[in-house]
């Protein structure tokens, strides 16, 4: 009996278990999705942008709405308008279709502008669906130059 008990203890002590931890690159909420998108903009990382930019159907890079060339052209425009030195989320509120709107202050050099980012929940995570470009138009103009 003692040998059986010792064998059970030994087997129990040697048992391992596996815990699956979801990858941290996934954006479980709207704020991490915004953070990933703005980090990709700042780094001018087109691949990371195409993973964080999307809608309720998933990332833009997997959609058949635009060609890869069109996605990259649009990303370059987005980089121009939303390139920043720092940003600050000023507020968040609900929107239609269960989306979220985040008011974000972007600062580039000595210029700060506030705009809205619209975030949608996709099948596996949140995505930045779009943003208002008009309030940040002058961030795309090289500093020291006029329109």
Structure description:
- The chain is α+β, with helices and mostly antiparallel strands and 147 residues long.
- It has one domain (27-139): Nuclear Transport Factor 2, Chain: A (Roll).
- Helices cover 33% and strands 27% of the residues.
- The protein contains four helices and six strands; from the N terminus they run H-H-H-E-E-H-E-E-E-E.
- It has helices at 2-14, 30-43, 46-52, 68-82; strands at residues 54-55, 58-59, 86-94, 100-108, 111-121, 126-131.
- The strands form two sheets. The chain has a four-stranded antiparallel beta sheet with strand order 3-4-5-6. Strands 1-2 form a two-stranded antiparallel ribbon.
- A hairpin with a 4-residue loop joins strand 5 (111-121) and strand 6.
- Helix 2 (30-43) runs antiparallel to helix 3.
- It is globular.
- 26% of the residues are buried.
């Amino acid at each position: 009996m003692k040998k059986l008990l010792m064998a059970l203890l030994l087997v129990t002590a040697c048992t391992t278990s596996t815990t699956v931890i979801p990858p941290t690159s996934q954006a479980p909420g709207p704020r991490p999705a915004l953070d990933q998108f703005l980090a990709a903009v700042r780094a001018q990382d087109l691949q990371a942008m195409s993973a964080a930019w999307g809608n309720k159907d998933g990332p833009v890079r997997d959609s058949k709405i635009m060609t890869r060339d069109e996605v990259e052209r649009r990303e370059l425009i987005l980089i121009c308008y939303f390139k920043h030195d720092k940003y600050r989320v000023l507020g968040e509120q609900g929107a239609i279709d269960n989306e979220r709107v985040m008011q974000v202050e972007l600062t580039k050099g000595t210029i700060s502008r506030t705009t809205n980012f619209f975030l949608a929940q996709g099948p596996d995570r949140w995505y930045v669906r779009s943003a208002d470009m008009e309030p940040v138009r002058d961030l795309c103009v090289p500093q020291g130059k006029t329109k």
